[in-house]
Each structure stands twice: as C-alpha cells, then as structure tokens.
Amino acid sequence: MRATRLLGAVATAVLVAAACGGPDLAAARSGPLTGQTIEVLAVWSDEEQAAFERVLDVFEERTGATVTYVSGGDEVPTVLATRLAGGSPPDVAGVAQPALVRTLARAGSLVPLDPATEAAIDAGFAPVWKELGTVDGTLYGFVFKAANKSTIWYDVRQLGPGFVPPRTWDEFEETLRKLSDTGRTPLSVGGADGWTLTDWFENVYLQTAGGPMYDRLARHEIPWTDPSVRTALQTLARVFRPEHLPGGIDSALQTEFAESVVDVFGEDPRASIVFEADFVAGVIAESTSATVGVDARVFPFPRIGPASSVVSGGDTLVALTDEPGTQALVQFLASSEAASIWAAQGGFVSPNREVRLEQYPDDSTRQIAEELVGADNLRFDMSDLMPSALGATRGDGFWRAMQDHLADPAQIDRILAELEAEATAAYADGDS
C-alpha cells in the first residue's frame, strides 16, 4: 500500500508540474523520487537519443529521480534477453516488435501498467494503439514513438515547385514513367536493407487485399502462397522496373536505407523520389543540406483501394520492474506533454492525438502526423507482428524473400513457396 500511495503522489506531482510549467530545478531535486535511479533501454541513438534524453531531463527535474538511458540499437531484443537471463532487467524498455511484447508478457517478464497510465492512454490514443500493447486482456505498454510508413518523399529542387504528387497507384506509375522517359531515374530504393522492401509490400498488400486479409496473413491464418500475396507482388513489380532505379536492380539491392535517402537529397542526386517513414527526416538533416518541409516534401502512399491506409511502426514502452519510479516515468511518457517535448525537436511522430500539430517543427512532419492519427485503415508493420525469426532477421525470412523478388520477380512461385515453408516453421515454434 505504501508503494501505491507513493506512486500516486509522484504521478500527481509530475502531471501537475507539467500543467503548471514545473517547479524550479532546486525544488525538483528534492522531489519524491530523490535518490532513486531508473534505467531505460531502447533503440534510439545519436540525435534520437539526445532528443529522448531531453524528455527524461524534464522528468528528472520534476521528481528528483535520476534516469539512465542505454541505447541498444538494433540489438535491443538480444540485450533485453541477456539482461533478463542475468536477473538485472532495465526498469523500462522500448520494444519495436509487438510479437516480442507478447512473448515477454506471457513469460511473466513485464509489469502491467497501472490504472492511471491506462486512463491516460484511453484518453489520448486510438483503440488500435492500445491493442498493440495489450496481451491476453492486460495492458503492458504503449507506442511512444510511432512511424508513418506510408510516406513518399520527393526533392522539390529536382521536380520543381509545380510538381503535383500522384494520388493513385496508376498516377504514381505514370509519374515514374514520364520521369524515366526524360532520361532521369526517378526512384531510389534501399534494397540492401530488406525491411524497406517489406514496408513497400505491406503498403501494397494492405490496399490490394484489405485490412482483414492483412491481419490474417500477419497471423499466418492464410498461406504466403495465397493469390492475394501474388497480386500484391505483381502490383509492386510494376514500379520496381530497372529503368526507374539508379543503376538498375543490382544497384538497388546494394543500396542501404540511409544511402537511398542521400541519393535523392544529397549533393549529387541520383533520383528524385524515395519511400520510407518519417525517420527519413533524420537522415536528411544529418547527411544532406536539404531542408525538410522546404526542399524535402512528402505525399501519402498512392491509393490502390478506396480508403486512406497507413502502415505504422513504432517503439512500445514496457515496464519490467514494479518500482514507484518506473510506473511514474511510464505515466509521464504516456502524456501528451512528454511527446510534445520530442515533437518540437523534430524526427518524431506521436500516435497521441492530444499532441497538437503545431508542436511539430515543419509542414511535412505535421502532414505525416496528421495522416497517421487520422487514418481510416491503420495497421502495424507486418514484419514486426511476425515471429522475429521470420520477420526481423537480416538476410533471411520475409526480408530475404522481398529481396529475391526485387532481384527476379519471375521467380515468384519459388519465392512464395520457400517463404511459406519458413513461416510454417516459425509459427510452429510459438514465437508470436
């Protein structure tokens, strides 16, 4: 009971301070969590780490706690497994794969979120986001940093201020063809990172097959040899034409994600259009002289079906200890104020609908955030919903299959048969 009362007092103090602008630093350092250390493990590094640490600074100033952040990069699942095996988990972790959240919850490694945090999530997040953090009826986490993976970027300096973005898939194909006919190679694809190709597929599949079929494929309730998968891949192949890609197919397969962005917005551009989520903005800011919202602008993934569809990804924050400071921090991070601190710095989109659009630093990011929050048909990244052995392994599974398809779409039967065999084995292992 004492821990529960203290947690309530801490959470109230944090949220009241947020509403009032916060106490001064001297008072905060003698707050209710003075002397307590909270550790957070997540994927963010470099500029993203610095931005998140500014969010943590506000929590520290208002509670007196000390928050230590550890960047696990792409190895967060491995680091987390090692820490759990050693009996020293972090207090809070950011997990990109909902499948891993389910595995951790069912293993008893996660602590359910407290009622106050759940109430904040109910108020600020659409039900689909809450569902992603819920396992067997219990809420264990929420998506703090989301990604709108239904975004196409283009360089205004190359295409001109009068460029009219295509709205439909047919218009998109026509745009690429016209640019190609003028001797330009319009589309940069980071095929060396298989996840960029799975994101392409997921957007096309969601629009050609629809949300219910997307859900069934993600759960492997239909096979990868289903005709709906073939239709999506054939549709995708219509834009993955050698003449559309700088250096052709072979070059695209050797181009990593960050390089694909620089190939559009860098000093020596090789293309004028690139697909990927809002985190493209970070690469532009770090590696080019282009300005997001001015030189670098966006349009929604071209429609194939009647509804506006968005594929999203994101990092789900979960609690692994039941300390008062852990739950107080998680409740603070669930607030719109915490999200707004990072939003104002750029390179961030929140699914929290209480974050005001004017908090974002440029028109392109505001557009991306508005489309994410207002999507009629939103689904989470399919590869992150799969068992990690199938959906998140470099050079294998879903990633490799999409690379094989880019390399030779005529091999579609073999590719899908092999992927179906791998999926059958992965889901039989129970990692979902």
UniProtKB/TrEMBL annotation:
Pfam families, A to Z: SBP_bac_1
PROSITE patterns listed in its UniProt record: PROKAR_LIPOPROTEIN
Signal sequence coordinates: 1-26
This protein's record includes keyword Transport: yes
Gene3D superfamilies: Periplasmic binding protein-like II (3.40.190.10)
Keywords: Signal, Transport
Listed InterPro entries: Bact_solute-bd_prot1, SBP
Keyword set includes Lipoprotein: no
PANTHER family assigned to the protein according to its UniProt record, in alphabetical order: ARABINOSE-BINDING PROTEIN-RELATED, OSMOPROTECTIVE COMPOUNDS-BINDING PROTEIN GGTB
Similarity comment: family membership: Belongs to the bacterial solute-binding protein 1 family.
Name this polypeptide is given: ABC transporter substrate-binding protein
